[in-house]
Each structure stands twice: as structure tokens, then as C-alpha cells.
Design goal:
The protein is of the alpha/beta class. It contains 7 helices and 14 strands.
């Protein structure tokens, strides 16, 4: 078993307040023998709709900035891996990266992933404040698994999840800030279950709650079964992942093996 602590939080607009909360939750996760603490998107701060791109860019930090240094120290002291998210500084004026970082139990940054798919949908336009990443991060070794990193809106793009699975991911981690709206909870549940089932992997999706977000942080197993749903409550949920289920699912439903890549390759030019 591999034990993960899912952090469902309501980030405020105060970066220090959110950092203090995150460090406290890392300590709590350690006390409950978690090997990983997974935070949602926008851990660093809630960005209200009226906040300008210039104001958000002023909050952003580099990967070696004080926000990440404090989280790295907390991970090292607790000897617990941490999946965190920040607004990362960007060379494009008045834009930031929406970045997920994997910190190992020694406090080292083991992976950096910048959100590829910006949420320009349902009346939102993240590209007014954010700049898209340019690549998918390699899956990170953790416990007896390999973990692929996605962020929120990425869940709507099955190609990305499939590429991570083909590159060895047995767990997909998708820190999110899933916005409320008509049918949005249904979309959330459907997308996460589909990504798990079609790739024979766990999907761990910590989500923001409160403000404009739906909560319902989820863990779904490789057969598409919901392991936990946190509803709208704040706090930690400890979940043990049985990685033998990944092997079982991929043996009984060998979707990765049954792919017809040679046929798909003929249609790569389709846009």
C-alpha cells in the first residue's frame, strides 16, 4: 500500500496564510504516516476574477522563491513527498505559469510541470493571465509507482493522460480548481473516472473548495471506482492506494496493449 494525504482547501488571497496552512497540513499528514501530501491547484493564492494580470504577476515567484523554499523545508523535516502548485514567474510580460512541483521526502524538487491547457472555456479565459507550458513532465517515481502530473483542465484532454500512462504512469495526479457551474460536478466525475478506466491507473485529484470551486476531491481506482469523495469539507483525507489493482486492471482490460498505434499514425495530420 502507498499512503497519500489529499488536501482539500479553500485558498485565500493571502499567500502567507496559505503557506502556513500548507505547512501545518504537511505536519498533520506526517503524523498520519502519509508518504505524499497532494495539494490542489492555486495553493499559493486564490485569484479573484477582478484581479488584473499585472496584480497576479506581482504575486508570482520563481521555483526557488520563498514559497517553495518553505514547502521544501517542510517536506524535508517531515520526510514526506509534497505535490504543490504555484504561480511561477514568466518571461512574458504580465503572465505567469500555473505550475505543479513534486518535492521529494528529502526536500528536493523532482519534477516541474507547467499547465499545458489553459482554461479558455465556459466564459473563463485563463490565457489573459497565464502562459501555457511547453511539455509534459516525465512520470515521477514514488513508492512502488510512477506518477504523472496534470492540472485541472488537462483532464479534458485524453491524449495527455494516455501519453503519461504509456510512459509508465500508474497514478495520475491532477491538482485542480474546478469551477462551479451547470453540470460541472458531473463533468468532474465523468472525466476523472474515464481517465482512470481508459488507462488502468489511479487518478488522484485534490480540488479547491469554497470561493468559486466545487470541492469533491477524488481518488478513483483503475476500474473507475470512486475510492473517496471529499464533498465540500476542508482538510485532509488519508487514502491507501493498492497498486496491485493497477496490474490487475491492465491484465483484465488491456487497453494500453490493445491500441492500434500503426493505424492511428496514419491520421496524425488530422487537426
Amino acid at each position: 500500500m502507498s499512503r497519500v494525504a489529499i488536501a482539500q482547501i479553500k485558498s485565500s488571497t493571502d499567500t502567507k496564510e496559505n503557506l502556513d496552512m500548507a505547512c501545518a497540513l504537511i505536519g498533520e499528514a506526517k503524523s498520519k504516516s502519509a508518504q505524499l501530501v497532494a495539494f490542489p491547484e492555486f495553493l499559493m493564492a486564490f485569484s479573484p476574477g477582478e484581479q488584473s494580470a499585472v496584480e497576479l504577476a506581482a504575486l508570482a515567484e520563481p521555483i526557488d522563491g520563498p514559497f517553495m523554499r518553505a514547502l521544501r523545508d517542510a517536506a524535508r523535516v517531515s520526510e514526506t513527498a509534497v505535490l504543490a502548485t504555484i504561480y511561477e514567474t514568466c518571461s512574458v510580460p504580465d503572465r505567469v505559469f500555473d505550475t505543479a512541483l513534486w518535492i521529494d521526502g528529502g526536500g528536493n524538487i523532482a519534477a516541474v510541470y507547467r499547465k499545458l491547457h489553459l482554461y479558455d472555456a465556459f466564459g473563463f479565459k485563463e490565457s489573459d493571465k497565464f502562459y501555457p507550458g511547453a511539455d509534459i513532465a516525465k512520470p515521477v517515481p514514488w513508492a512502488d509507482a510512477r506518477c504523472g502530473l496534470m492540472i485541472c483542465y488537462d483532464l479534458r484532454f485524453p491524449e495527455m493522460a494516455r501519453m503519461l500512462a504509456l510512459n509508465g504512469a500508474s497514478i495520475l495526479l491532477a491538482p485542480s480548481g474546478w469551477v462551479q457551474g451547470d453540470m460541472k460536478l458531473d463533468h468532474w466525475l465523468t472525466m476523472i473516472k474515464a481517465r482512470a478506466l481508459e488507462n488502468g491507473c489511479y487518478v488522484v485529484a485534490p480540488d479547491q473548495t469554497g470561493n468559486i470551486y466545487i470541492g469533491h476531491s477524488l481518488v478513483v481506482d483503475p476500474f473507475g471506482r470512486i475510492v473517496t469523495d471529499m464533498g465540500d469539507r476542508e482538510g485532509l483525507k488519508i487514502v491507501d492506494l493498492d497498486l496491485s489493482i493497477v496490474a490487475e486492471a491492465r491484465e483484465k482490460l488491456p487497453l494500453l496493449k490493445n491500441r492500434r498505434a500503426e493505424v492511428y499514425a496514419k491520421h496524425r495530420t488530422a487537426q
